[in-house]
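Re: that backbone. Tokens:
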């Protein structure tokens, strides 16, 4: 099945918000409303390196992805970090996630990015079935400390 994948516009906020909240629920996260508001504004600020795409079936938003361009000490062009990817449950396994990832690949190529990378939780086995088809595992582990 084919979906229309496009950059989310300011008028898409009401369609985007339930998916964003669903993503947070999936990862047991509670992002404050002020952060959500600021994030949405950043997606629509040309001076920000953050972008948001949505996959639509007609007027229905089935999935979202957020990605960020950033500099790297290892490359000339910016790397592209695919930070968030979420589809409504009814759309899983129907190619929505793949369409969103492919759209990020296209956007990254247009920006001169040499790679797109992302992380997922080790228990997200359903998503990893797709990820193993569209990318290679780096073997790196993430370490972090909240500041």
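Recovered sequence:
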């Amino acid at each position: 099945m084919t979906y229309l994948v496009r950059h989310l516009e300011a008028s898409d906020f009401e369609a985007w918000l339930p998916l964003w909240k669903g993503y947070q629920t999936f990862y047991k996260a509670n992002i404050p409303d002020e952060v959500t508001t600021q994030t949405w504004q950043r997606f629509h600020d040309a001076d920000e390196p953050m972008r948001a795409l949505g996959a639509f079936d007609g007027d229905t938003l089935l999935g979202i992805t957020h990605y960020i361009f950033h500099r790297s000490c290892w490359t000339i062009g910016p790397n592209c970090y695919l930070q968030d990817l979420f589809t409504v449950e009814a759309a899983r396994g129907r190619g929505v996630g793949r369409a969103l990832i492919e759209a990020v690949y296209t956007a990254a190529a247009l920006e001169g990015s040499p790679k797109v990378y992302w992380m997922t939780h080790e228990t997200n086995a359903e998503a990893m079935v797709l990820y193993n088809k569209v990318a290679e595992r780096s073997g790196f582990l993430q370490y972090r400390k909240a500041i």
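The chain has four helices and five strands. The mean pLDDT is 96.
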